[in-house]
């Protein structure tokens, strides 16, 4: 499985339209990969709360259309990071706004969405502006010359909640994809928790973070690919960078067979 993580850097001086065009062009350069991943809220600004309302859009909005076209042109499965989604509220108490990941097929079809379950902000930020998602999502990603790989979706702050990943594992996930806007001051947690999720669930972890500084927040970068044993196969620095790597997905199942931790679970 050939994977690319686009650790995108951006600041406050770039318009959403310009950034979207730049990102779409980057995706198009990555033809030949099976899966390309973008960071969380790269179009709306991960910490740019004051602009989220005006930048919210439907899952078939302007940003989504640009990503769909880029996925089709490159012939890749594209995890488009996440957008601020505006839709129909689930209940009268809801806002109808979510932090939503979008996954497009190599033909440009929207094949999966995931609304972030754990909202960051301790009562402010996301919890005050967005609704929480409820659904677990595992999507099969086709691989050239091989079988499709089941990929579990999560976003940024979700990484701190291991029970989510156990439930994705129980739904068949062999790979976890985690787009993020994780700040520099806690980047040590970002890398350590990614390895922990890989080790405890015997899954490959793909962590795609944001670089640069926006809304007075310095982002952490240090995207990484971790195999099912917890070994870091590839990692980025603090600046914009693309990680491109071939992952031996068969090795995950072999590791589970030779070191069968998971069957010894006793607590659901």
Automatic annotation (TrEMBL):
InterPro entries: C-N_Hydrolase, C-N_Hydrolase_sf, UPF0012_CS. Residues 1-249 form the CN hydrolase domain. It holds the Pfam family CN_hydrolase. Keywords: Hydrolase. It comes from the Bacteria. GO terms for molecular function: hydrolase activity. Coiled coil: none annotated. Belongs to the carbon-nitrogen hydrolase superfamily. NIT1/NIT2 family. This is Carbon-nitrogen family hydrolase. It comes from Terrabacter terrigena.
